[in-house]
Write a structure and sequence with these properties.
By secondary structure, the chain is an alpha+beta fold. It has a single domain, classed as Heat Shock Protein 90 (2-Layer Sandwich), CATH 3.30.565. It is 34% helix and 26% strand. It contains 5 helices and 7 strands. The strands form 2 sheets. It has a 5-stranded mixed β-sheet, with helices on one face. It has a two-stranded antiparallel ribbon with strand order 1-3. A hairpin with an 8-residue loop joins strand 6 and strand 7. The longest helix is centred in the first third of the chain and has 18 residues. The radius of gyration is 16 Å and the shape is globular. The N terminus is likely disordered. Bound molecules: adenosine-5'-triphosphate (ATP) and magnesium ion. Adenosine-5'-triphosphate (ATP) binds next to helix 3 and helix 5.
Length: 183
């Protein structure tokens, strides 16, 4: 079977595939995970005229490799900013949840933006490696790596998006089990 990627691409994938972190997992809340991420993007959020709304209802702590999960949240926030070139609203929420299929308790995190939204074709491809609509400004690896990280934590990531919507054009949702790093 012929792979859709060149040998060079496969080498790059091998290099950037997240490996289990050597540090120990820590117990953190969704709010703690987001604090550093928002601080990093504060300048871009202000310059882009983006209002940030948050509602951290989750009480539970997640045992996870927090730097890896921050990398995921950072990519979601970065993508949302890119999608709101002429300003908008970024809504970040967390609440305690139970996974419907496994019954495991965990935390659901959502990142919603009022940006451009995505076509059905983009939604279908966005977790593929090297898929980007940003030309030289994107590698197209952010969501692919994000899904790897969430999956290795025993969680799930999903998206819904619509073009030409005034609010919540795109919503990414992540479920992380409480013992996400017990692997
Ligand atoms: N919130 C969003 N609104 C609109 N489009 C999005 C959003 N998030 C992701 N996308 C689309 O999904 C594509 C893939 O996203 P991904 O994060 O994997 O790569 P990228 O952002 O293009 O590049 P990189 O993350 O490497 O900088 C983006 O190019 C964009 O088309
Ligand atoms: Mg990205």
């Amino acid at each position: 079977m012929r792979l859709p990627y060149s040998r060079h691409s496969v080498c790059v994938i091998a290099l950037i595939t997240p490996c289990p972190s050597s540090s120990s997992p820590t117990s953190v809340t969704a709010q703690e995970l987001f604090e550093g991420v928002i601080a990093i993007y504060q300048g871009r959020l202000t310059r882009s005229n983006i209002e940030v709304r948050h509602s951290f209802c989750a009480r539970s702590r997640i045992l996870c490799f927090e730097n890896e999960i921050r990398q995921v949240l950072s990519n979601l926030v970065g993508n949302a900013i890119d999608a709101m070139a002429s300003g908008g609203t970024l809504c970040i929420r967390s609440h305690d949840a139970t996974d419907r299929t496994t019954g495991r308790k965990g935390v659901r995190i959502t990142v919603a933006d009022s940006g451009s939204g995505m076509s059905p074709r983009t939604v279908a491809k966005l977790f593929e490696p090297f898929f980007t609509t940003k030309g030289f400004n994107g590698t197209g690896l952010g969501l692919w790596v994000s899904r790897e990280i969430v999956t290795r934590h025993g969680g799930r990531i999903s998206v819904r998006s619509q073009e030409n919507r005034s609010s919540s054009a795109t919503v990414f949702s992540i479920f992380l089990p409480l013992e996400a790093a017990a692997r």
